[in-house]
Task: structure prediction
Amino acid sequence: MTETNPAPREMLIIQSKVRDEVRKKEMRVSEDFLAALNDEVYALIDKAAARCSGNRRETLKKMDV
Result:
């Protein structure tokens, strides 16, 4: 795929659980919200992995988040 339209990533979040949590707030969830949330999870993992590597570790820990 091109840079402007990257290949979709595997969904890491459980969409039904996210929808259930949002429903508790009496709101709804759009598909683009779920995709954006998934992208944020990937970014958080990337950031945590970089911090972990920078500290010469191979195990992600709570402090990396």
User: Anything to note?
Assistant: The chain has a mean pLDDT of 92.
